[in-house]
Amino acid sequence: METNPFQRTRDDHSRERAEDYVELIDLLIRETGEARATDLAGRLGISHVTVSKTVRRLQRDGLVTALPYRSIFLTDAGQTLADQAKVRHELVLAFLLAIGVSPTTAEVDAEGIEHHVSAETLDRMQAFLGR
Predict the structure, then answer these.
(1) Which of 11, 80, 70 lies closest to 39 in space, CA to CA?
(2) Comparing C-alpha atoms, which of 91, 98, 99, 100 is closest to residue 123?
(3) Beta-carbon neighbour count of residue 30 at 10 Å?
(4) Exposed, middle or buried: residue 105 (CB in 10 Å: 0-12, 13-18, 19+)?
(5) Which of 22, 73, 82, 102 stands 20 to 30 A from 30 (CA)?
(6) What would the pLDDT profile of 45-96 be if each residue is shown by its tens digit?
C-alpha cells in the first residue's frame, strides 16, 4: 500500500495530460493521417497557445516530434504511452459497462478513472471480466 495517496494523485494528474494528448494524437493520425495543434485544440476545447505549450513539454519529454505549423508525430515512447492508456481505457470502460453503468456515463467516467486506477485495481477489473 502506498504511504502517501496525495502524492500519488498529484503524480497521476501530471501524467494525465500527457496521456490524453498522446491518445488524441494517435486517434487523429489514425482517423485523418495527421495531428495538428489546431485539431488538438478543437477536440480538447482549449486554446491553440495551451496546446503549443503542452506539445513543447511533450517534445522535451521525448513523447512527440513537431515543427512549427506542421503535424505532430508520436515517438516510440509516445506510441507506447498511447497504447497503454488505450488498453487501460478499454478495460475500465468494459468494467463500467459490465456493472450496469450507461454507455454515455461509462465513457465519460472511464476517461477520468483510467488515469488514476492502480495496477492492482486493473488486475481485479480484468479478473471480474474474466479476461
Answers:
(1) 70
(2) 91
(3) 9
(4) exposed
(5) 102
(6) 999 999 999 999 999 999 999 988 889 999 999 999 999 999 999 999 999 9
Q: Percent of the chain beyond pLDDT 70?
A: 91
Per CATH, the number for 81-129 is 1.10.60.10
Q: What pLDDT, on a 0 to 100 scale, did the predictor assign at position 12?
A: 61
Instruction: For the chain, give every domain's residue range.
Output: 5-75, 81-129
pLDDT of 28 reads 96
Topology classification of domain 5-75: Arc Repressor Mutant, subunit A (1.10.10)
What 93-97 contacts at long range (C-beta under 8 Å, 24+ apart), as own/partner pairs, is 94/125, 94/129, 95/125, 95/128, 95/129
Computed on alpha carbons and rounded to an integer, the radius of gyration of the chain in Å comes to 16
Q: Apex CA 32: angle with CA 95 and CA 50, to 5°?
A: 75
Q: Per the structure block, which three cell numbers stand in for 40?
A: 488538438
Ramachandran area for residue 66 (φ above 0: left; ψ -120 to 50: alpha; else beta): beta
pTM given for the model? 0.82
